[in-house]
Amino acid sequence: MTARAAETPARGTPVAKPAASTTGAGPGRGAEPESSPPNPERTGDGTATGLRALLARLNTPAVRTRLGTLAGVVILAVLLWRLGTGVFVDGLRRIDGPSLLVALGIGLVTTVFSAWRWALVARGLRIRLPLAPAVADYYRALFLNAALPGGVLGDVHRAVRHGQSTGDLGRGVRSVVLERMAGQLALFVAGTVMLLTLPSPVRDDLRQTAAPAGLAVLGACAVVLALRMNRPRPSRRGRALRSALAEAREGLLSRRNGPGVLVSSVVVLAGYLAMFVLAARVAGVGATVTELLPLAVLALLAMSLPLNVGGWGPREGVAAWAFGAAGLGAGRGLTVAVVYGVLSLAASLPGVLVLVARWYAGLRAGRRTGAAATAPPAPVSHAEDAPDRAPLAPDYASLPPLEVSIEKYAPKESTRLARSSLPFSAEPSEGRPMTPESV
After folding, report:
1. Where are the domains of the chain?
2. What is the DSSP string of 371-416?
3. Alpha carbon of 320 to those of 104, 155, 283, 326: distances in Å?
4. pTM across the whole model
5. Burial of residue 246, with CB atoms counted within 10 A of its CB: 0-12 exposed, 13-18 middle, 19 or more buried
6. What is the Cα Rg of the chain in Å?
7. 337: which of 16, 167, 316, 362 fits an S-S bond (Cβ 3.0–4.6 Å)?
8. What is the pLDDT of residue 241?
9. pLDDT at position 427, please?
10. Is-cis flag, bond preceding 394, omega within 30?
11. Alpha carbons 345 and 67: distance in angstroms, whole number
């Protein structure tokens, strides 16, 4: 067989193709494999996934708080740009000592009744909450709400601390949520009645939209009720919703808690409206109380929006618009809002005392715990029935020395002889008989 025949493969034998080189595009090196065209479905899935991830990242509490703070800053910046800084300075200049004292008194009444409402709701959820600690915690929460951005961080702190102290974090948080919900519900119902009956910039528009909005709410409730009745088995979300509604009914609408929650909510709302009227009087607004109440309701509704910096932002914007629409002047409305914010901050100042007292108590408890950990252990007495006071030990050093006779305790001669003699012994343990001399 020749060399050429050896190089030629036999018939039926598969011939291996040379592998294409991927390290060059020149001739003789092999062509690069063609890239597959992009899949439009896969690209769309990636875009949707990225959008969902971005929305999930923006939906965190920290991001929402920062966005709310940014919105409040923007609103205040626009007001300063349009109305100037003289409105803020004028509002601060008008505040005096008697107005601060009246604000402290109004704040005391509203805080005590708010704490009582919280205690009632907690009792409905089977949580024990005395009134005095509830008042202290509520003052602390009010101060933190006014001092920190977001306007709700004090309530969050109050809910978490109360849940941790009771050993049930979820139930403690729900008690605070229901208590705040009761206050907002009272404001919404009473505010709607005032805006529909009293002269206000939104009365005509509200009367036109009240009937369609009411019908839409009733229709939505009917649809939700029909869907729940036709569902064969309640889902996990449905069971959680049913449990939450049962807790709300027990905490807010039960026969034992309902009257107290209603009375406290009315008193608290009346205190907020009185604070706004006081701020209007301090700012020099001569309008009647019936003219100021709808404007106060609009400002309080704006304060419930989480787009503020310690309560500042939407309240000032809505007050400026409402006073301007009512013919009282936008600048005067901004001044009233500024005075209201300062008076509310002054009414929450007892919360600083609560913070300092709790901090000092915690510091003392930490020092006491550290001292107890580093102290040497106390000697343990093994006597079971030891008296309250141990008797004094006798002073043996002051006694005269006793003379002990060695002859009395010396062994007898017969005993020594018995021990040395055999087969007798004085020890019965050796198994030998004892003699009379060894006794």
Report:
1. 95-230+252-366
2. HHHHSPPPPPP--TT--SSPPPPP-GGGSPPP---HHHHSPPHHHH
3. 25, 28, 13, 10
4. 0.69
5. exposed
6. 43
7. 316
8. 76
9. 47
10. no
11. 23
Residue in the structure block whose two tokens are 């065209």: 37
Give the model's pLDDT for residue 371: 72
Find the helix or strand (DSSP H, E) in which 409 lies: helix 406-409
Distances 419 to 189, 406, 415, 434 between C-alpha atoms, Å: 112, 21, 6, 10
| Structural tokens at position 153 | 């961080």
Dihedral pair phi/psi, residue 309, rounded to 5°: -120, 95
The DSSP symbol for 431 reads: T
CA end-to-end span of the chain? 128
Among residues 346, 341, 321, 334, the alpha carbon closest in space to that of 86 is found at 334
Residue 239's pLDDT is 75
pLDDT recorded at residue 7: 44
The DSSP element (H or E) to which 47 belongs, if any, is: helix 40-58
pLDDT of the residue at 234:
62
Q: What is the pLDDT of residue 3?
A: 44
CB-count exposure of residue 342 (10 Å: 0-12, 13-18, 19+): buried
Name 145's Cβ contacts closer than 8 Å, sequence gap at least 6. Answer: 151, 152, 153, 154, 155, 310, 311, 348
Residues of the chain predicted below pLDDT 50? 1-33, 382-389, 396, 401-410, 413-439
Look-up: residue for tokens 């007001």?
79
Residue 99: how many other CB atoms lie within 10 Å: 18
Question: What are 309's strand-pairing partners?
Answer: 312
> Quick one: pLDDT at residue 54?
67
User: CB under 8 Å to 165, separation ≥6 — which residues?
Assistant: 172
